[in-house]
Amino acid sequence: MRAVILAGGKGTRLAPYTTILPKPLMPIGDMPILEVLLRQMKRAGINHVVLTVGHLASLLRSYFGDGAQWKINITYSQEQIPLGTAGPIALVQGLNKTFLVTNGDVLTTLDIKKLVAFHKKKGGIATIAAHPRQVKIDLGVIQWDGNDRVSGYIEKPTNDYTVSMGMYIFEPRVLDYIPVGQYLDFPDLILNLIASGELVSGYTFDGYWMDLGRPDDYIQANQDFGNMKKQFLPGD
Question: What's the domain count of the chain?
């Protein structure tokens, strides 16, 4: 099975660290976050990973090379212009079987084999790994009636959402919906699939997941990895 890891973004929310270091090379414990992903993929039976690169691509190539160190074949797909989160997939060659796509900065204990098995059972064109998330608003929220009249007041409400984990399983025909060389983000791709009558499934995972986009989340992820390393990388 092949995987595509999106590693070409500038990681602006983690600046200034990502000014000189691509986000997938940000250290988690004693290794880059992308190395954690590679080790997890190898254990799940993925033997070929394509890194879509752009920002500071030479550093990623220098560190990960051809993947021999992890006994996994790594190749690279270079973005010449920014193509969004989904656009780079159209440049990847050889995606003729079910494949995994993931952001290069995801820290999770999700079992990739179970995600793939769920996708195949559902039989759709795409499966999104999803995570329940509570968002607390640390302010009093005012409700309006539309005529400058206050109709309600909620003190520090908590809202429940199900969010994308930044991991997807796709069938090869998804490439029919991704124009080559054009900018496309995942929300637009998924909406296009749904509008075209395609089955898009969601795999809800309530275990550990952290997106390393913000400095606070990055600091927390480092602490969690130190405390839970065997859960992220059992047997390593």
Answer: 1
pLDDT of residue 218: 85
| DSSP three-state, residue 139 | coil
| CATH code: domain of residue 65 | 3.90.550.10
72 inside domain: yes
Phi first, then psi, for residue 82 (nearest 5°) are: -60, 130
Task: Copy the structure tokens of residue 157.
Answer: 């409400």
pLDDT score of 13 more than 70: no
Contact 73, 66 (CB under 8 A): yes
pLDDT at 219: 86
% of residues, the chain, pLDDT over 90? 70
Half-sphere exposure of 74 (CA within 13 A, CB side): 26
What angle, rounded to 10 degrees, do the helices at 57-64 and 33-43 form? 50
